[in-house]
């Protein structure tokens, strides 16, 4: 079960995202993002570390969370933002969204997608994992080392982690995220889990 990777965090809800009605702006964004992803062909057609969330399922999951979101902070960050669709969808759902992506060519695609849909989503080039993450020995002062700010300083973080990174993500949230920060994890397929730092 996925939750065992996130001990120390409060499980708010685990759910299967079901595609739902999408406003025209979100439908257009998803269609465009899929077209751009299909047309993208560096290095023989793919980036080896890229595993993208399905934007229709991401929309369903984010819309479910947005409907129940408490009043207050709506700062959103997608860790590993790929082609940028999820962060753009979050912006259209009322979050103040940004993304962090290691591959510069994907950052460029994401910025074009956001601009072409008249959104002000900011995409940062860099890693969301600070130095020492995999060894579980992150220095708090190093949290700003990647994109120039702490990747944990948000109200809601979205991530579709490799299985080997789940423990790393959990470690970072347990040790460094402030109380009340939410983490929306895509586990693959239609499975999502919303967690909260106690």
How many helices does DSSP assign?
A: 5
- What pattern of helices and strands is seen along the backbone? EHHEHEHEEHEE
Query: How many beta-strand runs?
Result: 7
Radius of gyration: 16 Å
User: Which architecture per CATH?
Assistant: 3-Layer(aba) Sandwich
Structural class: alpha/beta
Helix content: 25-40%
How far do the termini sit from each other?
21 Å
Explain what you see:
The protein has five helices and seven strands, in the order E-H-H-E-H-E-H-E-E-H-E-E. It has 198 residues and is α/β, with parallel strands linked by helices. Strands 1-7-6-5-2-3-4 form a seven-stranded mixed sheet, covered by helices on one side. It has a single domain, classed as Rossmann fold (3-Layer(aba) Sandwich), CATH 3.40.50. The protein is 31% helix and 20% strand. Helix 1 packs antiparallel against helix 3 and helix 2 runs parallel beside helix 3.
Question: How would you sum up this structure in a few lines?
Answer:
The chain has 198 residues and is α/β, with parallel strands linked by helices.
Which descriptors would you attach to this protein?
5 helices; alpha/beta; 198 residues; Rossmann fold; seven-stranded mixed sheet
Secondary structure elements and their pairing?
Blueprint: E1 10-16, H1 24-39, H2 55-67, E2 75-79, H3 85-92, E3 96-101, H4 104-116, E4 122-125, E5 156-159, H5 166-176, E6 182-188, E7 191-196
Parallel strand pairs: 2-3, 2-5, 3-4, 5-6
Antiparallel strand pairs: 1-7, 6-7
């Amino acid at each position: 079960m996925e939750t065992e990777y996130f001990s120390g965090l409060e499980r708010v809800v685990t759910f299967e995202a079901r595609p739902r009605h999408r406003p025209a702006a979100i439908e257009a964004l998803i269609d465009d993002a899929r077209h751009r992803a299909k047309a993208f062909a560096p290095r023989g057609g793919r980036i080896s570390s890229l595993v993208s969330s399905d934007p229709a399922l991401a929309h369903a999951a984010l819309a479910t969370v947005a409907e129940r979101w408490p009043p207050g902070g709506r700062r959103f960050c997608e860790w590993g933002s790929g082609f940028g669709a999820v962060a753009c969808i979050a912006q259209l759902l009322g979050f103040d969204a940004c993304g962090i992506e290691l591959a510069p060519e994907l950052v460029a695609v994401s910025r074009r997608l956001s601009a072409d849909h008249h959104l002000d989503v900011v995409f940062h080039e860099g890693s969301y994992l600070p130095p020492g993450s995999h060894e579980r020995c992150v220095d708090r002062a190093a949290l700003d080392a990647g994109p120039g700010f702490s990747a944990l300083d948000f109200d809601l973080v979205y991530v579709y982690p490799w299985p080997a990174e789940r423990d790393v993500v959990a470690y970072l949230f347990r040790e460094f995220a402030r109380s009340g920060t939410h983490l929306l994890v895509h586990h693959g397929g239609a499975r999502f889990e919303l967690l909260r730092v106690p």
